[in-house]
Amino acid sequence: MKRIKNLGCLALGFIALLIALSGKDVSALETLITAKEVPLTIIVVAHSYAPAKRANGVQVAGISSYDVPMGILPPTVIAQTTGQQGNTPVKFLAKPDPSYTYLHEVPINTTLTAPQGATTYFPCPFEIYAYYTTPYNVTDWGYGTSTQASAGTFPILNYPTNSDMSWAITAVGATPAPGAHYTLYADSGAPGQTAFSGAKSQAQTQCLNLSVTVPLTQPVGTYTAVIQYNLYST
Amino acid sequence: MRRIVLGLGLAIAAALADGAVSSAATGGAAKASWKVLPSITATVTPNYATGYGPQGGTGSGSTPAAGSLAVAGGGTVDFGTIVAGYQYIYKYAAQLTVKTNDSTGYKVFAEGSTDFIDTTHATTLTMNSVLYWMLSSASNTQYSAATPFQSTTNTGDTAYNNNANGQGQNITFAGGLGNPPSSALIYSSSVDGTSTQGFDYQIRVPDSITTTDTFTAVVVYTAVAN
User: Fold this and answer.
1) How far is B199 from chain A (nearest CA, A)?
2) Does A75 touch chain B if contact means CB atoms closer than 8 Å?
3) 3-state secondary structure (DSSP) of residue A5
4) What φ, ψ does residue A2 adopt, rounded to 5°?
5) What ipTM describes this predicted complex?
6) What are the domain boundaries of chain B?
7) Where are the domains of chain A?
8) What is the CATH number of domain A29-48+95-233?
């Protein structure tokens, strides 16, 4: 009876070990090869798409108002722009990424415009290329997210609040089937979630299709989402 | 000589007498009106505050440092050496000072006079996928929300004050000056007077760069009245 009890304890311990190994901390058994951050710009616009109006309902005049005639009462004087330009030269020396061979982003259109109060789908704003000499996993999570912070920033936010951005993978050139499942971006830091896997020496490029759900209360403006992709050798 | 002096004296006396009669006949006040010529001036100062220069590149294996063309209160927003595929911010990149006597205020637009061009002209990087702007703040990082600059759809003034790559440092807008697209709006004010605003830049160079090369572009700011 005592032996049976001991065997039971051993079995329970073994099951607990399996659960632990198959759980979140899989990365402990893997080797991180490289990581890349994918910044996305999200421009939130008013839900109605209505042109900007003044409080009295008069549409704001555009730049063409410069031809307002002068001298009509009440006097309207418009400053002229002649010579009112300044400039800033910008320069950089770009070096190739040494880990480009293993993992890189292929940006397609990473500026996403989405209206308030709606879910907008973006077919393949970017692609992820991966390759390694052993079997591998590519994981992702929202950069800078935390289980400690209370809110986080739109659209990835922080755990336990669900992200307002999700993803679905397809082959390059394909689009998700109608009703396809989109996975919410992980927003509690590492280890995140597995985006896709590859066999030994398998080079592949996957298309990331995105959806962005903008709460109606989200102020109009420009936001950034940074997704970190990680290549693990398994 | 005496005749000339006498004639002058008579003329003055006649003028005084005429004025006295006129004043006594009409009275009242004179009304004068004039228009103040509106004006607007704008200046842009690169590297405008202590601490200017690049930060970021986390995970790239190198620490960013401003290039030699970056000088305090002027010069170029020179990111120095960066690694493709990583994100960088350039703190205190440019400060805009606008002065106007127009009580309706002003708008400021900013565009690249071209896309980024490399020194060999073998590669072009699109402005709106590489360079971004945000209002300066001490808390800004390479991950902060930022808006891409657009390259102009008008004409970079290549006949004036070009840089080494022939990129114009002014923009001539279709239909005359003062016609930038609304998408290039970066700042506005609804009052007259003098105001200043600083900007940080972000740079995101795509991984596809396969050779080491230098890229340049010019961001042109245009201030116009509301």
Assistant:
1) 11
2) yes
3) helix
4) -65, -35
5) 0.82
6) 40-225
7) 29-48+95-233
8) 2.60.40
